[in-house]
């Protein structure tokens, strides 16, 4: 029997503990270990030759990948695409991001259709791996006196994190909606705006960064999740909301469209404050919309089970390490 393959998961340098890339890497490490592999998560390569390297973020992982490729040219490499890669660096002509993808044996995308944003010669290397989520305990019954809506998003411009706060200002006085926003202050200007909004807007509360478990409890206790991002590689928070049957209100961006489908009833256009305000009000008033959104979440939940994500990785191991497959 072959020894377990040694897999190196490379994170972008300086990844915060609860940032999406690190959460994704830790989940992949767990699934790969369940599949029989030995996995190390690191931001820099220590020089020990792995059997397989998986890098999150084409541009930010480029220096470590170049070191590894030069020293271990026979080591298979997988590059996982982030939203910054797909919708920022690659369209902007970033050379480091493109070199990482050209050197990759396989490219992991987090939503269907991502290959269409890549140069044609790279598209046959793409494998879609949907981000999974564990089904939690049943949600608590809602408090009829409150209508909490959560935003789980770090404060970065690409996340458009204060759009829900601005939309809440257009709700009528009788509305019960309150926006509860958990996320780290990664952009100082946005952090200052969030503090001011919390002070001046009675419907908005920035809670700061929360531990992952606490953030997921907030999600489970909410009547809806708002994902206002301008771009995403494939937001795992959609999977987390789906397995909890939490209604999802999302900006109409390619990755979310690919995951939820065109007929999802919770779309608003990116940056459309009034459109989001109207959607929030409809959700509060119309139980049929809430039911439709919950059914849409259930549809996504069936596609993001951990077993499916593990099978996707097992398939990749079979392609790249046929003699070392666990």
Please tag this protein with its features.
alpha/beta, 12 strands, Rossmann fold, 12 helices, 6-stranded parallel beta sheet, 326 residues
Describe the structure.
With 326 residues, the protein is of the alpha/beta class. It has two domains: 6-132 and 305-320, Rossmann fold (3-Layer(aba) Sandwich); 147-301, 3-Layer(aba) Sandwich (Rossmann fold), CATH 3.40.50.2000. Helices cover 39% and strands 16% of the residues. The protein has twelve helices and twelve strands. The strands form two sheets. The protein has a six-stranded parallel β-sheet, sandwiched between helices. It has a six-stranded parallel β-sheet with strand order 9-8-7-10-11-12, sandwiched between helices. Helix 8 (236-243) crosses helix 11. The longest helix is centred in the first third of the chain and has 15 residues, at 20-34. The N and C termini lie close together (9 Å). The mean pLDDT is 92.
Number of domains: 2
In whole angstroms, the N-to-C terminal distance is 9 Å
Mean pLDDT: 92
C-alpha geometry = elongated
Enumerate the spans where pLDDT stays under 50 for 5 or more consecutive residues: none
Described by its quaternary structure, the protein is: single chain
Overall radius of gyration? 20 Å
State the helical fraction. 25-40%
Largest beta sheet: what is the strand line-up? 2-1-3-4-5-6
Structural class: alpha/beta
CATH topology of the largest domain: Rossmann fold
The CATH architecture classification of the largest domain is 3-Layer(aba) Sandwich
The major β-sheet equals:
6 strands, parallel
